Predict the structure.
Amino acid sequence: MTWVRAHAPGRVNLIGEHTDYNAGFALPIALEAGTVVDFEVGGADATIHAGSDRKPDSVAVPLDTSPSTHRVTGWGGYVAGSVWALREFGVAVPAGRMRITSTVPVGAGLSSSAALECAVLCALTAAAGAVVDRTELARIAQRAENEYVGAPTGLLDQLAALYGEPDTALLIDFRSVRVTPVPLESAGGVWLAIDSRSPHRNASGEYADRRRACERAAELLGAPSLRDVADDDWRQLADDELRRRARHVLTENRRVLDGAAALRSGDATGFGALMRASHASMRDDFEITTPAIDLIAATADRLGAYGARMTGGGFGGTVIAFAPQDAADRIAAELPDTVAAAGHPRPGCTRIRPGAGAHLLPDTEPARRTAAPPP
Ligand code: GAF
């Protein structure tokens, strides 16, 4: 009998939002919280039977599932999409039983879906005895999400889930798909994830709309992507909304590069100022924040954070605050009451640290351990 056990983390993006599908830059961390997939190979029915600690019903994924036939919907779609994309890549995925457990909150903008896809892919490649490098695995997970689940997302979440390192942020260049570690120790400070607990409003429709706007802006500027235009080319666009969408992406790319430099040199105040500017750009130019999210970010700033900004796709989710220890204590103690008193759901504050990327866990059958994604 063959068994494997794989873990993949959620992520928080420190800065660089909606830049991935524009071939730009981002600076995420992987979380310590993650998803664990236990997979036992076996069964003559050419099916993977998957159960989750969060769902009462298990899901049957036929190995020949595809977006056009045998399409699985709901949470099982992320498992099935990963099976489909991995088989399309050429890996002989075996039948078996899968048990999924997770500590990544769903719907909080912390990428529980990429954690699930990457843990499933890590387990299935190992079970198949295949070795697939991490960038390729990220592309396979993205293909599952884009073509099977139907969400037009970029590569940010999957790269963060696969390349994460403790105490380290990841500077990602989405054009070359290069990931450069940025150590976080010298900047000190505390990172707080503040979950707004406010529901997303039509987040997927709005996300697709922003992506189309960026593509249209690049097209009008005669460039393949917004990465290929000069920093102030947004001024050439006649339409006010497109100007603001492009301005967000172009200024955000610059903030990511400046932010990585600030963290490397231990400049916590400088990084915080960039986080605040990023939040304002998401609020005013890209228009992806909500009143609750804006209040959380402003309250964290008022209580002494170096900076705070929404993280992830937007329209709800989580604010990441970077703060000296005393301000972090104040934020955890006072911010939930302030936000609840304004009539919003009471947020949850959690201290986070960067964690490791996807990997096989020790209780994987020894013969399969070599099939982990190579570093
Ligand atoms: C979501 C998407 F999945 C990512 O690809 C990225 O675009 C992010 O929103 C915004 O930066 O998490």
About this structure: The radius of gyration is 20 Å.
